[in-house]
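Ticket #4471: complex job returned nothing on first submit. Input attached below:
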Amino acid sequence: MSEWSNWSGSVRFTPAAVVVPENEEELARIIRRAGDEKQTVRVSGAGHSSTPLVQTPDILVSMKNFNGFVARDGATIAIRGGTMLTEANEIFLEHGLALENLGDVDLQALAGAIGTGTHGTGRNLRTMSNHLVGGRLVNGKGEIVDFSIKDDPDFTLAARVALGTLGIFTELRLKLVPAFHLHRKEWCTHIEDCMVNLDKLIASNRNFDFYWYPRSDEAKLRTLNIPGTGPKDIPYAWCQKERTGWSGDVIPRSRGNKFDEIEYWLPIENGPPCFEEIRQRIKDVHRKDVGWRVLYRTVAADEAMLSGAYGRASATISMHHNASLPHDAFFRDIEPYLTKYGGRPHWGKKHYQTATNLKQLYPRWDHFQGIRRSMDPEGVFMNAYLRTIFEEG
Amino acid sequence: MGRKVWMISAGRIPLRSTGREPENTSRDELCFLNVGYREAQVKVTLFYADREPVGPYKLDIPPRRIRRVRVNNLINPEAPPLDTDYGAVIESNVPIVVQFERTDTSESKPAMSPMMAFAT
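Support reply: We reran it on our side without changes. The output follows.
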């Protein structure tokens, strides 16, 4: 069996078998058999996660046969569970619909992006997971479960961010918004001018984020607004680039350079002081080796049980490092600055947290755990990494 | 005018900076002059004392223009380490002129050291 690697190359393993089920019934049989034989089943998506969510010594499932459009009901689209995000965006647009927001890249599998709470930026915009209003999955007992926010609200709030621990999605039902254009502008300024004006920048743009460059103290501001809205000028910054187009074409950027990343969600009021401490720490200690920019975004509060934004509007701060360079010492050194301000880790990116700490961060942690155990009592979907997250001791 | 291959052997970006950045950031800079009528597509490879070379870093120099690039800011494929000796080979598809300049603000009074790269 050949080695599997994630996008950055920082997660590598060789599963005993890669299976490619043709349909839901075959997937259910695979899971039941794995349960009987005490094997671990994980799904390979696009491999964009920096954490070993996919890793298994046993069975790796490819969902490439579960691809494409299923049905439409008003603004709700049903789409197969193995569809890639770029393809999903095209399908939505064919129906005149779109996700409300997108992340910085669109290289992920849609189910993976939803299952890890992937987000973009915007004070009033929630994570991609919040579009999920129902779907079908095969749970750890090999049962096919059809759920909806109307009939199973708690289950849906658990399923929105579940790291693939409730089951394998065969179908996702997403409530979307009418397709829309955005005008994207990129501005250059000094980080101190950015921070002085941060609240106004966040409030006056539909989507706003900034990158801080640790080797120059400059910042790149990115603003996205419905054409004709938003500030025309930022007096202390100069516009470097601009573009208008469909949201799915304009929000994500292609990324040729591979990196690893740590990102945390903080209560929004804690974002600026946390960022300033990290900025100083990087300048004092890490600038010799760290050249990648630090990204600052905002996300609206939501109700998904394991969402980083559960119950609180959030600022997110992420550190990047070239994939070819060692990142561990850098990320480990910065993480305490993030946890000190009440940070929750992004599930798809590097972090060093375990169940004992994590359970303190999510008010509905125990409720989620109950649902998870009911869906997967034998732990078919629990790999070694997930056990450190969900099982204490 | 110019040459297609240039070399630098005395690279070392100072670690510390004094004063507001980016104007006072200690840095090594590559200074390009392209007097021709075609865009120069430049590849920079960095060499170190104790590991394999890293590159190419790809840069474009518009025709009949100059361009300054801080080595500090190179990121793709890899951020060069500060405070570390390096050499550079600069290859262009058209003849260009390359100068190399170090600005060191470690002390309160900035020190600047312009020098020519070596052409083959």
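Chain A has a mean pLDDT of 95. Closing as resolved unless it happens again.
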